[in-house]
Amino acid sequence: MSILYNILRFPYHLVKRIYKNFNLIIQKTFFKIDKNYLRKKFLELGFKKGMNVYVHSSLSSFGYIGDGANSVLIVLKDIIQGGTIMMPTFTYPKKEFTLNDPCWTGKIAERFRLGAKRSVHPSHSVTIRGKLANYLIRGHEKSKKPFDNHSPYAKFAKLNSYILMLGTENNSMIHYVQNKVNFPNLFLEGYHEFKFNNKTIKTKLHHPKGSITYICNGKPCTDVQFLVKMYKDLRFEERGIMKTVKIGNAVCHLIKTKEFVKEATKYLKDNIKRYKNEYNLILKDGSS
To answer: Which residue has the higher pLDDT, 86 or 31?
Structure first.
Protein backbone atom coordinates (compact mmCIF):
# COMPACT_ATOMS: atom_id res chain seq x y z
CA MET A 1 0.00 0.00 0.00
CA SER A 2 2.86 2.36 0.90
CA ILE A 3 4.69 1.66 -2.38
CA LEU A 4 1.53 2.27 -4.42
CA TYR A 5 0.86 5.50 -2.53
CA ASN A 6 4.38 6.77 -3.20
CA ILE A 7 4.01 5.98 -6.90
CA LEU A 8 0.62 7.70 -7.28
CA ARG A 9 1.20 10.61 -4.91
CA PHE A 10 3.04 12.88 -7.35
CA PRO A 11 0.67 12.50 -10.35
CA TYR A 12 -2.34 12.85 -8.01
CA HIS A 13 -1.15 16.16 -6.58
CA LEU A 14 -0.07 17.35 -10.05
CA VAL A 15 -3.54 16.71 -11.50
CA LYS A 16 -5.13 18.31 -8.45
CA ARG A 17 -3.00 21.44 -8.85
CA ILE A 18 -3.70 21.65 -12.59
CA TYR A 19 -7.45 21.36 -11.97
CA LYS A 20 -7.31 24.04 -9.27
CA ASN A 21 -5.45 26.45 -11.56
CA PHE A 22 -7.78 25.72 -14.49
CA ASN A 23 -10.83 26.32 -12.30
CA LEU A 24 -9.32 29.61 -11.10
CA ILE A 25 -8.85 30.78 -14.70
CA ILE A 26 -12.49 29.90 -15.49
CA GLN A 27 -13.72 31.78 -12.41
CA LYS A 28 -11.59 34.85 -13.23
CA THR A 29 -12.72 34.89 -16.85
CA PHE A 30 -16.44 34.17 -16.60
CA PHE A 31 -17.54 34.51 -12.96
CA LYS A 32 -15.44 37.30 -11.46
CA ILE A 33 -17.16 39.12 -8.60
CA ASP A 34 -16.43 42.82 -8.08
CA LYS A 35 -17.36 45.36 -5.39
CA ASN A 36 -20.39 46.68 -7.29
CA TYR A 37 -21.87 43.20 -7.53
CA LEU A 38 -21.17 42.54 -3.85
CA ARG A 39 -22.84 45.81 -2.88
CA LYS A 40 -25.93 45.01 -4.95
CA LYS A 41 -26.29 41.51 -3.44
CA PHE A 42 -25.57 42.65 0.14
CA LEU A 43 -28.33 45.26 -0.17
CA GLU A 44 -30.63 42.57 -1.58
CA LEU A 45 -29.85 40.39 1.44
CA GLY A 46 -30.99 43.21 3.72
CA PHE A 47 -27.90 45.11 4.87
CA LYS A 48 -28.54 48.61 6.21
CA LYS A 49 -26.59 51.46 7.72
CA GLY A 50 -26.09 51.09 11.48
CA MET A 51 -26.74 47.32 11.64
CA ASN A 52 -25.06 45.01 14.16
CA VAL A 53 -23.88 41.88 12.35
CA TYR A 54 -22.07 38.70 13.47
CA VAL A 55 -20.35 37.34 10.36
CA HIS A 56 -19.37 33.76 9.48
CA SER A 57 -17.69 33.36 6.11
CA SER A 58 -16.01 31.14 3.52
CA LEU A 59 -14.18 33.20 0.90
CA SER A 60 -13.56 30.26 -1.43
CA SER A 61 -17.27 29.52 -1.70
CA PHE A 62 -17.96 32.71 -3.71
CA GLY A 63 -15.84 31.82 -6.73
CA TYR A 64 -13.31 34.51 -7.67
CA ILE A 65 -13.52 37.90 -5.97
CA GLY A 66 -11.19 40.64 -7.15
CA ASP A 67 -8.95 41.64 -4.21
CA GLY A 68 -10.43 38.76 -2.19
CA ALA A 69 -11.27 39.32 1.47
CA ASN A 70 -10.49 43.04 1.22
CA SER A 71 -13.34 43.58 -1.24
CA VAL A 72 -15.83 41.82 1.02
CA LEU A 73 -14.74 43.85 4.05
CA ILE A 74 -14.67 47.19 2.22
CA VAL A 75 -18.22 46.78 0.92
CA LEU A 76 -19.51 45.37 4.20
CA LYS A 77 -18.06 48.23 6.28
CA ASP A 78 -19.24 50.86 3.80
CA ILE A 79 -22.86 49.68 3.89
CA ILE A 80 -23.01 49.09 7.66
CA GLN A 81 -21.25 52.35 8.60
CA GLY A 82 -22.24 53.46 12.08
CA GLY A 83 -23.03 49.88 13.10
CA THR A 84 -20.96 47.02 14.49
CA ILE A 85 -19.36 44.03 12.77
CA MET A 86 -18.29 41.02 14.86
CA MET A 87 -16.47 37.94 13.57
CA PRO A 88 -15.34 34.70 15.22
CA THR A 89 -11.54 34.52 15.46
CA PHE A 90 -11.27 31.11 17.07
CA THR A 91 -7.86 29.65 17.87
CA TYR A 92 -6.46 26.29 18.89
CA PRO A 93 -5.79 26.62 22.64
CA LYS A 94 -2.17 26.91 23.71
CA LYS A 95 -0.56 27.76 27.04
CA GLU A 96 -0.34 31.48 26.30
CA PHE A 97 -2.87 33.45 24.25
CA THR A 98 -1.96 36.69 22.47
CA LEU A 99 -4.09 39.10 20.48
CA ASN A 100 -1.86 38.41 17.47
CA ASP A 101 -2.65 34.68 17.34
CA PRO A 102 -4.04 33.86 13.86
CA CYS A 103 -7.54 32.37 13.70
CA TRP A 104 -8.77 29.27 11.88
CA THR A 105 -12.19 30.71 11.00
CA GLY A 106 -11.41 31.75 7.43
CA LYS A 107 -9.50 34.30 5.34
CA ILE A 108 -12.10 37.03 5.74
CA ALA A 109 -12.07 36.74 9.56
CA GLU A 110 -8.27 36.65 9.62
CA ARG A 111 -8.02 39.76 7.45
CA PHE A 112 -10.68 41.49 9.56
CA ARG A 113 -8.71 40.66 12.74
CA LEU A 114 -5.76 42.83 11.71
CA GLY A 115 -6.05 46.21 13.38
CA ALA A 116 -9.44 45.49 14.96
CA LYS A 117 -10.39 45.04 18.62
CA ARG A 118 -10.31 41.46 19.85
CA SER A 119 -11.72 39.81 22.96
CA VAL A 120 -9.40 37.83 25.21
CA HIS A 121 -10.18 34.13 25.17
CA PRO A 122 -7.80 31.22 24.43
CA SER A 123 -10.21 29.33 22.15
CA HIS A 124 -13.30 31.41 21.24
CA SER A 125 -12.28 35.03 20.86
CA VAL A 126 -14.14 37.46 18.61
CA THR A 127 -12.87 40.49 16.69
CA ILE A 128 -15.05 43.58 16.39
CA ARG A 129 -15.14 46.90 14.56
CA GLY A 130 -17.73 49.58 15.28
CA LYS A 131 -19.36 51.62 17.99
CA LEU A 132 -20.09 48.68 20.31
CA ALA A 133 -16.65 47.04 20.08
CA ASN A 134 -15.41 48.03 23.54
CA TYR A 135 -18.66 47.00 25.20
CA LEU A 136 -18.79 43.61 23.49
CA ILE A 137 -15.18 42.50 24.06
CA ARG A 138 -14.94 43.77 27.63
CA GLY A 139 -14.50 41.01 30.23
CA HIS A 140 -14.42 37.96 27.95
CA GLU A 141 -11.29 36.78 29.78
CA LYS A 142 -13.42 36.50 32.94
CA SER A 143 -15.91 34.11 31.33
CA LYS A 144 -15.72 30.70 32.97
CA LYS A 145 -17.32 29.22 29.86
CA PRO A 146 -16.53 30.67 26.40
CA PHE A 147 -20.19 31.39 25.52
CA ASP A 148 -21.56 32.19 28.99
CA ASN A 149 -23.74 35.14 30.01
CA HIS A 150 -20.71 37.45 30.39
CA SER A 151 -19.35 36.72 26.92
CA PRO A 152 -19.60 38.85 23.75
CA TYR A 153 -22.08 36.31 22.38
CA ALA A 154 -24.54 36.86 25.24
CA LYS A 155 -24.23 40.64 24.89
CA PHE A 156 -24.68 40.46 21.12
CA ALA A 157 -27.73 38.20 21.45
CA LYS A 158 -29.50 40.90 23.46
CA LEU A 159 -28.97 43.57 20.79
CA ASN A 160 -31.11 44.32 17.79
CA SER A 161 -28.70 42.31 15.66
CA TYR A 162 -28.22 39.78 12.88
CA ILE A 163 -26.20 36.65 12.17
CA LEU A 164 -24.69 36.60 8.69
CA MET A 165 -23.42 33.44 6.97
CA LEU A 166 -21.48 34.08 3.77
CA GLY A 167 -21.09 30.81 1.87
CA THR A 168 -21.19 28.67 4.99
CA GLU A 169 -23.82 27.01 7.17
CA ASN A 170 -21.65 27.34 10.28
CA ASN A 171 -23.35 29.46 12.93
CA SER A 172 -21.42 29.55 16.19
CA MET A 173 -24.22 31.41 18.00
CA ILE A 174 -25.68 27.93 18.51
CA HIS A 175 -22.93 27.38 21.10
CA TYR A 176 -24.40 30.21 23.17
CA VAL A 177 -27.73 28.38 23.03
CA GLN A 178 -26.02 25.10 23.96
CA ASN A 179 -24.58 26.78 27.03
CA LYS A 180 -28.03 28.13 27.99
CA VAL A 181 -29.68 24.69 27.88
CA ASN A 182 -26.82 22.66 29.46
CA PHE A 183 -26.14 20.69 26.30
CA PRO A 184 -24.79 17.18 27.09
CA ASN A 185 -21.03 16.63 26.79
CA LEU A 186 -20.38 20.25 25.85
CA PHE A 187 -17.19 20.70 27.88
CA LEU A 188 -14.07 18.80 28.82
CA GLU A 189 -13.67 17.98 32.51
CA GLY A 190 -12.55 20.76 34.85
CA TYR A 191 -11.19 24.22 34.20
CA HIS A 192 -8.14 24.86 32.06
CA GLU A 193 -5.55 27.55 32.72
CA PHE A 194 -3.96 29.84 30.13
CA LYS A 195 -1.74 32.90 30.24
CA PHE A 196 -2.43 36.33 28.78
CA ASN A 197 -0.01 39.19 29.52
CA ASN A 198 1.27 37.27 32.57
CA LYS A 199 -2.27 36.92 33.91
CA THR A 200 -3.99 33.55 34.38
CA ILE A 201 -7.26 32.78 32.61
CA LYS A 202 -9.40 29.89 33.85
CA THR A 203 -12.08 28.61 31.53
CA LYS A 204 -13.96 25.55 30.38
CA LEU A 205 -13.04 24.18 26.97
CA HIS A 206 -15.50 22.76 24.49
CA HIS A 207 -15.23 19.03 24.09
CA PRO A 208 -13.85 18.49 20.55
CA LYS A 209 -16.59 15.96 19.85
CA GLY A 210 -19.40 16.75 22.23
CA SER A 211 -19.83 20.38 21.17
CA ILE A 212 -20.39 19.53 17.51
CA THR A 213 -22.35 16.28 17.78
CA TYR A 214 -26.15 16.35 17.80
CA ILE A 215 -28.87 13.78 17.36
CA CYS A 216 -31.06 14.11 14.26
CA ASN A 217 -33.80 11.53 13.68
CA GLY A 218 -32.21 9.26 16.28
CA LYS A 219 -28.71 9.31 14.76
CA PRO A 220 -25.59 11.44 15.41
CA CYS A 221 -25.25 14.41 13.08
CA THR A 222 -23.04 17.48 12.76
CA ASP A 223 -23.91 20.97 13.94
CA VAL A 224 -24.45 22.06 10.33
CA GLN A 225 -26.87 19.19 9.66
CA PHE A 226 -28.70 20.02 12.87
CA LEU A 227 -28.98 23.73 12.02
CA VAL A 228 -30.16 23.18 8.44
CA LYS A 229 -32.84 20.80 9.73
CA MET A 230 -33.90 23.31 12.38
CA TYR A 231 -34.27 26.14 9.85
CA LYS A 232 -36.45 23.87 7.73
CA ASP A 233 -38.51 22.42 10.58
CA LEU A 234 -39.23 25.85 12.06
CA ARG A 235 -39.80 27.50 8.67
CA PHE A 236 -37.26 30.28 9.24
CA GLU A 237 -37.54 31.55 5.66
CA GLU A 238 -41.34 31.55 5.51
CA ARG A 239 -41.64 33.30 8.87
CA GLY A 240 -39.16 36.05 7.97
CA ILE A 241 -36.53 35.01 10.53
CA MET A 242 -33.99 34.25 7.81
CA LYS A 243 -33.38 35.59 4.31
CA THR A 244 -31.26 33.75 1.75
CA VAL A 245 -29.51 35.18 -1.31
CA LYS A 246 -26.96 33.55 -3.60
CA ILE A 247 -23.84 35.67 -4.19
CA GLY A 248 -21.71 34.17 -6.93
CA ASN A 249 -21.49 30.51 -5.98
CA ALA A 250 -22.07 31.23 -2.29
CA VAL A 251 -25.40 30.67 -0.56
CA CYS A 252 -25.70 33.43 2.06
CA HIS A 253 -28.12 33.80 4.99
CA LEU A 254 -29.07 36.75 7.18
CA ILE A 255 -30.80 35.71 10.42
CA LYS A 256 -32.40 37.81 13.17
CA THR A 257 -30.36 37.02 16.28
CA LYS A 258 -33.05 37.34 18.96
CA GLU A 259 -35.45 35.14 17.02
CA PHE A 260 -32.70 32.61 16.34
CA VAL A 261 -31.82 32.33 20.05
CA LYS A 262 -35.49 32.10 21.10
CA GLU A 263 -36.39 29.44 18.52
CA ALA A 264 -33.16 27.46 18.85
CA THR A 265 -33.42 27.35 22.66
CA LYS A 266 -36.80 25.62 22.61
CA TYR A 267 -35.87 23.41 19.65
CA LEU A 268 -32.65 22.24 21.29
CA LYS A 269 -34.34 21.63 24.66
CA ASP A 270 -36.95 19.46 22.96
CA ASN A 271 -34.22 17.65 21.01
CA ILE A 272 -32.22 16.85 24.16
CA LYS A 273 -35.32 15.66 26.01
CA ARG A 274 -36.40 13.47 23.09
CA TYR A 275 -32.99 11.86 22.57
CA LYS A 276 -31.69 11.83 26.15
CA ASN A 277 -30.43 8.24 25.98
CA GLU A 278 -28.71 8.80 22.64
CA TYR A 279 -26.87 11.86 23.95
CA ASN A 280 -25.73 9.93 27.02
CA LEU A 281 -24.07 7.40 24.73
CA ILE A 282 -22.14 9.92 22.60
CA LEU A 283 -19.33 10.38 25.12
CA LYS A 284 -19.05 8.43 28.31
CA ASP A 285 -16.37 10.72 29.70
CA GLY A 286 -17.97 14.05 28.71
CA SER A 287 -19.42 16.49 31.21
CA SER A 288 -22.14 19.11 30.99
So the answer is: 86
Residue 23 lies in a domain: yes
CA-CA distance, 84 to 157, in Å (whole number)?
Answer: 13
Look at residue 286 and tell me whether its pLDDT is greater than 50.
no
> Is residue 187 exposed (0-12), middle (13-18) or buried (19+ Cβ within 10 Å)?
buried
Q: Which residues contact 36 (CB under 8 A, 6 or more apart)?
A: none
Q: Which helix (H) or strand (E) holds 196?
A: strand 192-196
Say whether both 211 and 184 belong to one domain: yes
Phi, psi angles (nearest 5°) of residue 215:
-115, 120
Let me know whether 15 and 125 are in one domain. no
What is the value of pTM for the model shown?
0.88
Residue 124's closest CA among 185, 184, 224, 204?
A: 204
pLDDT of residue 32: 78
pLDDT at 287 over 50: no
Domain range for 41 = 32-282
